[in-house]
Amino acid sequence: MATLFRRKLLALKYPKPNNFNWKEESEFQNLVAWLEDQKIRHYKIEERAGLRNIASADWSRAFDKYLRDLGCPYPPADRSAMLDWLLGYAVRLEYGDDVEKFRSVRPPKSSTAAGVPPGGVSSNPLDNLDFNDPDFKAGVTSLAMMLQIPPYADHLEQMKAICIVVTEKLSKEVLEKSKKSKQGDVIPIENTELGFDTGDLIINEVAKILRLLHIHDLRELQSQINHAIVAVQELIANPKTTLPRDNKFSKR
């Protein structure tokens, strides 16, 4: 049980990093109270009573509010992912308290990145990244939230999903194509013929807007129909789609 979070617990100097059982309710509650008191310190001292009183029936309610106040992207029900985020958040704050000390630390020369020649320096910044670093995990989570990608326990798999979304939706080529597709002949509303008169100027203008929106939807539908026709024509023209000679349905 303890091995899942042992590394972060050791980094935070938690009193029982080797024997911590995150599925045991009282141990979990004590850890949360300890994190807030010793590392996170998001609340004022007098505001921490709800988290400290682990025997209270309202502890879960206080903890749910605590997660919302911190901006945790995971629900309390997903305890493993939520606790991993909470510990990572505490590690980031611990690092930030003494950033100059940790900035001066350098890895030993023997631990060169893969693909870097001995004594050489890689020009690829990704070679110097620690993909298991709490800051990196937190950044992946934040980016996934911005792109409205559902949370996932494995941050590397979530990063793959982010890459797919960026490639298919946000790449320069896709954005340029989307921009061109949205550009068309602009029809001024004052030049639009309604075809009838309601007797009210405002209602007439609203009717013109609805008419233009309807025309836009028809154009979109026509474009989709054209794409479908082209796809069917390509499918029919593909010789692989023809029936084999020995097929019982083929003409003799």
Task: Give a structural overview.
By secondary structure, the protein is mainly α. It has two domains: 2-103 and 132-168, no CATH class; 184-241. The protein has ten helices and no strands. The chain has helices spanning 6-11, 25-40, 49-52, 59-70, 79-97, 99-103, 134-146, 155-170, 172-182, 201-237. The chain is elongated and about 80 Å long. The termini are far apart. The model is unreliable at 110-120 (pLDDT under 50). InterPro entries: RTRAF. It holds the Pfam family RLL. It comes from Dreissena polymorpha.
Number of domains: 2
Low-confidence parts lasting 5 or more residues at pLDDT below 50? 110-120
User: How far from one another are the termini?
Assistant: 70 Å
* Largest sheet properties: none
What percentage of the residues does DSSP assign to strands (E)?
Answer: under 5%
Shape: elongated
Per DSSP, the total helix count is 10
Element order, helices and strands?
Answer: HHHHHHHHHH
Structural class: mainly alpha
**Computed CA radius of gyration, to the nearest angstrom:** 30 Å
The average pLDDT value, as a whole number, equals: 75
* Topology, number of strands: 0
Helical content stands at 55-70%
InterPro entries: RTRAF
Pfam family, one: RLL
Protein name: RNA transcription, translation and transport factor protein
Region (Disordered): 104-127
